[in-house]
Amino acid sequence: MDSNSPDRPARPVARVVPDPSTADSPCVAVCSTLFDDICRGCGRTVMEVSNWVFMTQQEKQEVWKRILQEGYPRPPGHQRTRPES
């Protein structure tokens, strides 16, 4: 039986979230600011995303600390609910 056989269940695809100790950027390729100015994939603000390459290591570490505390970065496929007003 080959791996594309309809009798074999599909294997789940691993969702990789960047490790702040090794990744420069928290980007998970889910770039969306659908409801506000926060990317629903990485948790950075629009300004943080656009200025990331110009930020110092200390500034990047501060952003990493905040987004990790807020539960980011989120793997692709994670659903975010609309914030309450």
Protein architecture, described:
The chain is mainly alpha-helical and 85 residues long. It has a domain of 54 residues. It contains 2 helices and no strands. The N and C termini lie far apart (54 Å). The mean pLDDT is 77. InterPro entries: DUF1289. It comes from Orrella marina. This is DUF1289 domain-containing protein. Pfam families: DUF1289 (PF06945).
Count every beta strand, where a strand is a DSSP E run of 2 or more residues: 0
Terminal residue distance: 54 Å
Q: What about the largest sheet? A: none
Note the run of SSEs as H and E.
HH
Principal-axis shape equals globular
Q: How much helix is in the residues?
A: 10-25%
- The poorly predicted ranges are none
Strand content: under 5%
Helix vs. strand class: mainly alpha
Rg, nearest Å: 16 Å
Helices, by number, come to 2
Summarize the structure.
By secondary structure, this protein is mainly α.
Keywords:
2 helices; globular
What layout of secondary structure does this protein have?
Elements: H1 46-51, H2 57-69
Organism: Orrella marina
InterPro entries: DUF1289 (IPR010710)
Protein name: DUF1289 domain-containing protein
